[in-house]
Amino acid sequence: MKRDGRFGRYGGAYVPEILMPALDQLEAAFLDAQADPAFNAELDELLAKYAGRPTPLTRCRNLGTDKAQIYLKREDLLHGGAHKTNQVLGQALLALRMGKRRIIAETGAGQHGVATALAGALFGLETRIYMGAHDVERQRLNVFRMELMGAEVIPVESGSRTLKDAINEALRDWAASFADTHYLLGTVAGPHPFPTIVREFQRVIGKEARAQILAEEGRLPDAVIACVGGGSNAMGAFADFVDDETVRLIGVEAAGRGLDGAEHGATLLRGRPGILHGAETYVLQDADGQISESWSVSAGLDYPAVGPEHAYLKDSGRADYVGVTDREALDAFALLARSEGIICAFESAHALAHALKLAEAATQETLLVVNLSGRGDKDMVQAQGLLAPSA
Amino acid sequence: MRNSSRYDRMFERLAERDEAAFGAFVMLGDPDLATSAAMLDALVEGGADMLEVGIPFSDPVADGPVIQAAAVRALARGATPADCFALLKAFRARHPDVPVGILTYANLVVARGRDAFYRAAAEAGVDSVLVADVPLKEAAPFVASAGAAGVDPVLIAAPNTPAGTLAGIADSARGYTYCVARAGVTGADAEVAFDAGLLARLGELGAPPPVLGFGISRPEHVRAARRAGAAGIITGSAIVALAAGHPGREAEAVRRFAAGMKDATRP
Ligand SMILES: Cc1ncc(COP(=O)(O)O)c(C=O)c1O
Q1: Which of B32, B29, B11 is nearest to B20 (CA)?
Q2: What DSSP element (H or E) covers B52?
Q3: Which one of A77, A84, A136 would you pick to mutate in the ligand 1 pocket, going by the greatest count of ligand atoms within 8 A of its CB?
Q4: Chain A partners within 8 Å of B110 (Cβ)
Q5: Residue A21 belongs to what H/E stretch?
Q6: pLDDT, averaged across chain A
Q7: B160: which chain A residues are within 8 Å (Cβ-Cβ)?
Q8: Cβ A237 under 6 angstroms from ligand 1
Q9: Which domains occur in chain B, in start order?
Q10: Statement: the pTM of the whole predicted model exceeds 0.95
């Protein structure tokens, strides 16, 4: 782990001094746990027997072209419905290790809230989820799921009433409650050590996918493609491929209603370096540094900052970042359902939409791995409104 | 002479009379810039020894509901950092001796450029800048830019801040040391508890004079802080809430409040 929590110039820990001891304690607990075979054995067992790992790598039968094959890493099949469960189980074990009895989390789409709620239920931890009031409205089903598992869901009315405001509120709670509470941050954003911890607990995605594609095809893929909100499913998918120089890493941001306007969540494409939620990273902001409100049809990509390691991968050129609009994502979402019988999350549909473009353009044999980060149950009501053929 | 010595002169003057400093916080631009300027004047008239001013930021994670709401109102009325600097420059022309500190967030500083932000503060006659989301570990470049501009970097010390960090704060901070009286975010508490141990540790380390903030809203809090050895206190949420509760009469309301609080700083 990078001791100073930097990825090039990005990262760091920009939080009020009062929170620094809690971050230090978390870093120490994480380093200690990583070196403890018993911790890793317990996490592996949970991932296998509770969460359902390994997840399959599915070759699309109908999507793709003569030249290009598309493989889907099926995080949609993970317990909880998205990749979020991987790292929540890891952090919940860290919380227990630190003797905390309460966990708090922010959530956007509700997937991280659901994952946190299930861990809270499993380990008997008091659980509170902060969720932007706007997201509460568009993700009602997930709110109910969280509550069913015993979590308290607090709608956040401040600011844009979305993910960024939920993070603000969780940080405020933590500044008063750190003595007995772990802030179970849901993505590779936030202050050090969160970006590193979350990446390490999500690394399993790419690790499995790499072994699976080698077993299936006898070679590495040409590209690994993942959607980027805060960036956790993408970092998890990328991490074990970073040293494979022939593998393109492509992060797909929400272009929302178009990159030329203001209604998008394309932080790496349209933001500039700044400091938000504890990290130096790309941020959507105005000239003075006031944070802009982002937009995406998918709540999970509706975030005006991004994990600092993505900022570094962008500047260093190791990863490429592209945008996919709401419309393109919805089309890919519908196409995947019709052609493969898989209903994915709106977030994941962004990654698929870009893979479809690459497949269309392929002139030589191309192997694409798409991280299908979650399933679409949470999006059904919204999809019905946007797509229903009979409506 | 450096601007920052306004703090030194103030603390010396108060020490001679065995008084603590009463610091008053105002969110600039709430409800509008003209009212903020009138409130600053009224607070000084009422007895404030030093002023702390917020430059409103969209995502103030260290602030509780009262100051968050003030920032939202200020931004809705269009207050920008440039407006705030202009307001402060005009204040400085009216009040050559009252120390003024800015309290804001890191992204506003880096968006302007660290050096440029501190230079703008210096040109506005500001004595210190406290960046709420910059802990000692990340402070070095901010402290350097402050030093280059001749502005005091104020750092926060909390009851749970480890000894090594306190020593670093004592080394880097200038002007005063902002001591948070408790965990959590800003707010006006009914009761406050003070960590006299923190004040003593800072004293031993030779840190700038400790000024207590977070939760302080009543004269009895001020008396308790003074007894615990604080060189001063800062009241924020109570003033912001009071002003919000007296639309059109903000300045008069905060002037009277300041007089009551200042009284409590005296032996
Ligand atoms: C299914 C799914 N994919 C992706 C994301 C975006 O998060 P991240 O970029 O951290 O993977 C979310 C967030 O809620 C999600 O639910």
Answers
A1: B11
A2: strand B50-54
A3: A84
A4: 273-275, 280, 289
A5: helix A20-34
A6: 96
A7: 18, 21
A8: no
A9: 5-263 (3.20.20.70)
A10: yes
